[in-house]
Amino acid sequence: MDYRALLNCVVYLALLGIVSQFIGMRLPRRIFTGEGFLFKCRAAEKGGKIYEKLGVRHWKGIVPDMSKLFKKDMVPKSIKGSLSLERAMLMQAETCVAELIHLLLIIFAFPCLFIWHGVGGVTVFVLYALGNTVFIIIQRYNRPRYAAVIDTLKKREQRTE
């Protein structure tokens, strides 16, 4: 095993993670609506039901959640009490930001294939990509649920006007 190449990959991916965390925290949430090409819910996703077949509901709570570490700078993912329209829209935007960041992490992990040539680099890249795909799946699972809540809250708001 090429420990030097492994260390270089680990350091590169750690730095990539740190940089992406700060970029993700600084992205303006107002531009993420869940309606853009990358983020809109696809018919094949069946409103997130396709992810339920993967058991997302059962394991999504055990994966790391950066909002628990950066409580001051990130929106907590848990919902306590009633949910306002503004809060639901913010939560939906958060799913878009998280999905974008994890997708970029996969793309920018590609240099590991050059840092560590051969099976080792491929293994690191594939494991890292799979790890980030888990988080993308969680965002794709949650987004239609927020979209449904947003629709309900908008209808309720229109009825009271």
Task: Give an overview in words.
- This protein has one domain (about 5-40, about 45-75, about 100-160).
- It starts with a helix and ends with a helix.
- The chain has helices at about 5-25, 50, 55-60, 65-70, 85-110, 110-115, 120-160.
- The longest helix is centred in the C-terminal third of the chain and has 42 residues, at about 120-160.
- With about 160 residues, the chain is mainly α.
Question: Radius of gyration, Cα only, in angstroms?
Answer: 18 Å
Mean pLDDT, rounded to whole units?
Answer: 90
Distance between the termini: 67 Å
Number of domains: 1
Number of strands: 0
Could you say which structural class the secondary elements and strand pairing correspond to? mainly alpha
Query: Main beta sheet, described?
Result: none
Indicate the low-confidence ranges by residue numbers: none
Strand content: under 5%
Helix and strand run: HHHHHHH
| Count of discrete alpha- or pi-helical segments spanning 4 or more residues | 7
Helix share, percent: 55-70%
- Identify the overall geometry: elongated
